[in-house]
Structure formats: C-alpha cells, structure tokens
Design goal:
With 186 residues, this protein is mainly alpha-helical. Helix 7 packs antiparallel against helix 8. The chain contains 8 helices and no strands. The protein has a domain of 84 residues. Helices cover 62% and strands 0% of the residues.
Length: 186
C-alpha cells in the first residue's frame, strides 16, 4: 500500500490535536502560524524600521520549531510521493474547473494555478501580491490567523476567535462562489 493512499483517520488526528491543544492551554501558550512571521521579521532586523517588531522573539522559539517541523514534514511528504497522489474530487468540481480552463491534475492543486508556469504570468504575480497583502492585513486586523483562532482560540473558548473563525468561513464561501469565478472568467 502506498504511504499516501489515505489520510489519517479522524480518530487518530483528532485526539492528537486535542492533546496538543490541552498541553498548550496548560502551559499558557497559544498556537498560531502568523506569529511566526512576526518572529522571523524580528530576527531579520525589522525592529530597526518599525517598533512593532521590537519584541523578544525567543519567547516564540517553540512555535518557530513547530513551523520548521511543518516545513520539513511537507518536504518529506512531497519527496515520499504525495505529489503523485490523485486527489479524489467530485465530478461537479471537475466540470466547474474545466469550465474555467483547469484540468484535473494529479496532486493537491491544479498546475495551472500552482505550477511553475503560472509564475511566468504578471497577472499571477499581481494576484499573489494582492492576496498576500490581504491575508497579512486580515491576520493583523483579526489579531491572528485561521489556525490560531480556529484551533487555539476556539479551544480556549474565546468569543473573538469564534467570530473570526465564522468570518473566515463566510469569506471563503464568498470568494469561492463569487470572486474566484469572476476572476477566472477573464
């Protein structure tokens, strides 16, 4: 059987997330990916340009280790064959993607959107730039990212995280059903 023939079962991944979050709550730590960007900017010397980055990044070293592990795990997963896995998607989605000009490529994302050829397009660079700005702005405005609010904040029963997570999902639905079809229609 191929290593990536199936994903992890909910009864394995769910308890692992629970144990991780319980430990973080007991240790008084919060999980989130966006805080790592702040730490990386601080390490790179951004504190000379903006007071926001004048923080002690060592307080977040454990979270940087998590991101390094996630990146290493992603690389190992790719090298061990996940890129060759054909992701099963619904026939309706295949038809919709085809109407937008995308074939059902093996892997986790259409090569037309995520492949190296897409990066030769100035439009793709523009969309990446605008999208990156909007994600960064939204992350700062919401005081955290989707993983921080959706996993850590909800586990901590924070009302703001519930509102943020509901907003993330609502925005995703609007973009998927209205913005993306409009952009890809051009």
């Amino acid at each position: 059987m191929h290593l990536f023939a199936t994903g992890w079962a909910w009864y394995i991944s769910g308890p692992l997330i629970f144990v991780t979050m319980a430990l973080l709550v007991l240790l008084g730590r919060r999980f989130g990916v966006s805080s790592n960007l702040e730490s990386i900017c601080t390490i790179a010397g951004a504190g000379r340009l903006a007071p926001h980055f004048r923080v002690n990044w060592r307080n977040h070293a454990w979270n940087l280790a998590f991101i390094a592990g996630a990146m290493t795990g992603g690389l190992l997963t790719h090298l061990l064959g996940a890129a060759d896995r054909i992701v099963p998607i619904s026939p309706h989605t295949v038809t919709t993607l085809a109407s937008w000009g995308f074939s059902h490529d093996p892997g986790f994302a259409p090569n037309a959107l995520m492949g190296t050829a897409a990066l030769s397009s100035p439009v793709a660079w523009g969309l990446l730039g605008v999208g990156g700005f909007l994600v960064g702005f939204g992350t700062r405005w919401a005081s955290g990212c989707t993983s921080g609010h959706g996993i850590s904040g909800l586990a901590d029963l924070q009302r703001g995280s519930l509102i943020a997570t509901m907003s993330f999902f609502a925005s995703g639905l609007v973009v998927t059903n209205f913005v993306l079809p409009t952009l890809l229609g051009y």
